[in-house]
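<goal> How does this chain fold?
<body> The protein record starts here
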Amino acid sequence: MTTLVVGAGIFGVTAALALRRRGRAVTLLDPGPLPHPLAASTDISKVVRLEYGADETYMQWTERALDGWRRWNAAWDAPLFYETGVLFLSRGVLSPGGFEHDSLEVLTRRGHAVERLDASAVRARFPAWNAELFVDGYYNPAGGWVDSGAVVARLVAEAVDAGVALAPRSAVTQLIESDGRVTGVVLADGTRLNGDAVLVTSGAWTPHLLPWLAPHLRGVGQPVFHLAPADLGAFDARVFPVFGADIAQTGYYGFPATGGVVKIAHHGPGREMHPESGERQVTDAELDAMRAFVARAFPPLAAAPIAKTRVCLYCDTADQHFWIAPDPDRDGLVVAAGGSGHAFKMAPLVGEWCADALEGRIEPRFGWRPDARADSGEEATRCKL
């Protein structure tokens, strides 16, 4: 029998590869095209970082993931991971309980060579930044960014080479269930496919395909802006690496100049929406907020024209941990979703976590939440970190 993987974003394609390595027959289903233009995995860049505040377990995972990115780069014909380092700056002096302070403390304890920066160091090394505003922080040479769309395309090609059956024009509309067990899926054209297990990795589409998870998984839109400054040199990776700009307070992060644009994005409460909603446009309020932030933070970028905007759709969980676990009420169904805006950096690990879940080994933080059982009508309490 074949394991059916529904969704070919970063969860699905890495899971398909991991399952093939374990000897399973795998069919990877996606409506396409690939990379899917509406998927969270798609865009020109995603951050790879070690930082998770005081949470040392997550940093241990990101250390393993970073090693995985380096291994993938070494194996690929051309690099898709660019280790520019990452810059985390604050508008106030770092203090315990703050994201930057606690990340720095854990990084230092774990032996990472991190450079603390004051306003004068920011002014000297990173001149596009307003050093009167950002007065404290650090530079970590470990980390950077990945060409996310190209990574998905590369991994899809590797999956096909490994023997995964790819069905790129296959939109799954429902599950096939019998006596409490999921035995396959139904496609939009009515085709029925049977499998020994179904792994749903469909991102923000998950709560629509599996409506009993709608109270626990939400599609949340976050604005992304591609700016085209006249002077790209000021935003070269050597002087403008991947950054978080007092991110726990402002929500803004971004990337060095890539393909003629500087990408600025926002991580915040976002706007709940369907992944195929007509509302997937950046609003005037989001644009105005970005412009106001950039004018204060990066004066040389203030007048840069906008080349493109995009709404990146997270699939959020209430606790911000991934959701990678079997459905306790439906044998044969495993759900791997809830990227919550921080899954792509974990790509070298995510597939193995998904494959483990199919074999009954669950990372406790990613397990099925108790209030998502079929007999519970309670809605999870949301908190956006």
